[in-house]
Amino acid sequence: MSEDAPGTAVPRVGLLYDSVSANTGDIAIGIAGAQELARHGLADVTVLDPFAPATDSVDAVVVGGGELIRPIGDAFYDVFRLAGGTVLNSAGVWQAAEGLELFKDYAVVSARSSVEAEVLSRYVDDVRVVPDTTTTMESAPYRIPGVEDGEPVVGVHVVPHTLALCPDLVELIDAIPHKKVFIPFTHYNYDDSFMRAVPFDRTNATFLPRLSPLELHGAIGGLTYVVTSSLHASLFAYSQSVPFATVHQEKVWNYFSDRGLQRLVFRSCAELRAALEEIEAGEVDLAGLVAADKAAVRAAYADYAAAIRHRAGHRSVPRSAPVSSELQSERLTSSQREGVIHNRDSVLHQLYLRVLTAERGERVWHDEADRLAARVAELEAAAAVPADQPGSPGTVG
Q: What is the pTM of this model?
């Protein structure tokens, strides 16, 4: 332990979360967690590599946040089931997660939503709901190139899932009457290349490069509002009282349902249109909710700090990864890339079916039009036959 004041020592705190994926939200959780611990005098913080062998370099471990608690059997996510940890912080928990008794020994156990807390409460008596740590993250403003001071500007972040739920997405985004800035956010998802491939109108738009989490936080904080496809992009907006419309994911729905903001989570073009209309009308006021969430995060970290100091000296040791760090990293990256390919293939399939259905409908329409034209021609021909000619209407053969 490092010295804090005469006769006292500062516990060395390890943060264990997904610090190895190119995931803006997860990396931001680590940054925000370190900021909060520093506010409570715990500045000796180490980000623990989930792939690293067991280490005794820390005195306490904070596990989370992020969507870490999943069913047993995933070599990567099982690492976060750490025996002897001190705090489980604002964890994302899958409904099928089992075998969570080990968290009974933690000083504080928290989940990021009431739905996820209910899963933990099947195994742990005292479970808290704590807003995501990035709610209190602080960053410097980021000046977006090409945007004038005071100019309305809308952030856009879309992935294949967004287009799958809202096929008319391009038309809806193009209809927004402000400058747009396209924001790569989920870098592991290669969202930058996807957004460049979607035929948005870019005559009054700019495209950000890949930015760090703090830069992205600063950029989003200066926007008029955001249309996004990421929980943490939504949180970067929400926590700075920037209105947002965010695509439906279960974790997004659970989180914002706790705040009565379901109407800003869209599952269709109609729901996105309704959210945009409400935002454009200036009817989304987040300030009160955000203030309450910031206070909740800071209160939670005060309790975390107390628990860490109380347990100082009772060292938590992350368990070894079952295979080499390099091999584990390659497996994780490969799995993420497979997910990206699957998502894009699924959208291509849906778009193809949509085009095919439209083409078939057009052919049916043309066939029906041809049939009706032929019938009209028959009737016109029949009407042109002289009345006294055999076979003409009104005569008897």
A: 0.82
